[in-house]
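Chain particulars:
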Amino acid sequence: MIAQRVGVGALRRAATKPSIYFNQSIPKLALASISTSHVRYAVPSRPAPPGRPRRGRDSNKSAPSSPDSPITTTKLSPSEGDQILANQRLQRPISPHLAIYKMEQTWFGASAWTRITGITLSGTAYLYFGSYLVAPLLGLHLESASVAAAFTGLPFLVKGGIKFALGFPFAFHFINGIKHLVYDLGKGFAKPSIRRGEIALWVSSILSGLYLAFGL
């Protein structure tokens, strides 16, 4: 290596300072080729990163599998096949998962609560009127005077809770119905308007339910 460097240095000096041994007609392309080969041998090659085979002529590449290689199969009973499918289905994610949505879209969505409050009101009405029809057959007294007298004897908080359980669904369903009538006019579809409408709906419904429960 040292002798090679000395030779390259002598060629460079000869190219710049002609003497009796070297003249200016020496092709500089040959000198550049020698210098390039010297640099190529002097710089060590970088090692290949771990986990990746080194590229080169001596790298071992896995030979492709032959298309004529035999394919092995396993015979399963129908019950074993069903068990494999059941295990695969257990690994599948539940889609859509409720955790990917915002809480105000799942727990406080006006669309869902409109249905919940509607079912609460209609279910209570059907339950009472159905019981009122069969009450004479069962010896029960569900007429208005009997219900009012029984309700009057309840504690104040219990009466307020029952009235709020009926007043809040009524207020929410009524106010949200008005909001949908505004939607039918083509207004209020901007995102800020929807957020403000949701907040106003919940606040007004809760306040109305409290007023119907304890204010009347």
Q: What stands out?
A: Confidence is low (pLDDT under 50) at residues 19-44, 56-63.
